[in-house]
Amino acid sequence: MKLIIEENEQKMSESAMFILLGAMMQDKRVNIFLTSGRSPKILYEMMIPHVKDQEKFKDIQYYLFDENPYIDEEHGPNWNEMQDLFFKEAHIPNERIHIMNQDNWQDFDNDIRHAGGIDVMIIGLGYDGHFCGNCPRCTPFDSYTYCIDFKEKQAVNPSYKDRPRQPFTLTMGPKSLMRVHHLIMIVNGKEKAEIFKRFLDEPIHQDLPATILKLHPNFTVICDQEAASLINPENYKRI
């Protein structure tokens, strides 16, 4: 794992953007995973002018790695949020955006392998240590993409609020992420400092499922100084 601590959220986002744009410059079909949420907001704002209507990026394929489908609706909240955060402003056509749904999730991993695999993936660190849709105490560490009933997640995480219109979660599991060529986690803000320290210091365990990602062979973690405020960077330098 390579840890990069940047001065602020702007610098963190800039570093992540350079990695993404570098991967996107390859002379082939490039597949990238993007995340919704608060952490990548500035990253996407910075990327849009570089990507919008650029012929050199016409072969880029975008994937979303989890979804909480609404009953009787075509798209869930992750699709909708990513449209607002990035895809609409960057003029990314829907046919180049791939997301799992009730019909295709069982074939999602094989479809990605047949498309050449994922070149680079951006993820965040959840406030409770979750990643993608992999939540505490209900993440099968030996899983590829899977479906989980929301009530099962709620039973072991009582703080999760009811979602009657979203009865289940579809998500890529840990084994799916281990296939990604370059995995990048971005973490920012003081409110993430405690869970970030735990993620770095604790062994792999179900109460903090993101710890499993430390096994990834090409894993870069980029954070700002606020998120790193409780750690001593010297403890995480490579020997």
Primary descriptors:
239 residues; alpha/beta; Rossmann fold; seven-stranded parallel beta sheet; three-stranded antiparallel beta sheet; 27% helix; globular
Describe the structure.
- The chain is of the alpha/beta class and 239 residues long.
- It has a single domain (2-236), classed as Rossmann fold (3-Layer(aba) Sandwich), CATH 3.40.50.1360.
- It has seven helices and ten strands.
- The strands form two sheets. Strands 1-10-9-6-2-3-5 form a seven-stranded parallel β-sheet, covered by helices on one side. The chain has a three-stranded antiparallel β-sheet with strand order 4-8-7.
- Helix 2 (41-51) links the parallel strand 2 (30-34) and strand 3 (60-64).
- It is globular and about 45 Å long.
Approximately what portion of the residues adopt beta-strand conformation?
15-25%
How far is the first residue's CA from the last residue's CA?
12 Å
Give the count of structural domains.
1
Q: Which consecutive residue ranges, at least 5 long each, have pLDDT under 50?
A: none
CATH architecture: 3-Layer(aba) Sandwich
Strand order of the largest sheet: 1-10-9-6-2-3-5
What is the CATH third-level topology name? Rossmann fold
Shape: globular
CATH class designation? Alpha Beta
How many extended strands?
10
Domain Glucosamine/galactosamine-6-phosphate isomerase: 14-214
GO molecular function, one term: glucosamine-6-phosphate deaminase activity
Protein name: Glucosamine/galactosamine-6-phosphate isomerase domain-containing protein
InterPro entries: Glc/Gal-6P_isomerase (IPR006148), GlcN6P_deaminase-like (IPR052960), Glucosamine6P_isomerase_CS (IPR018321), NagB/RpiA_transferase-like (IPR037171)
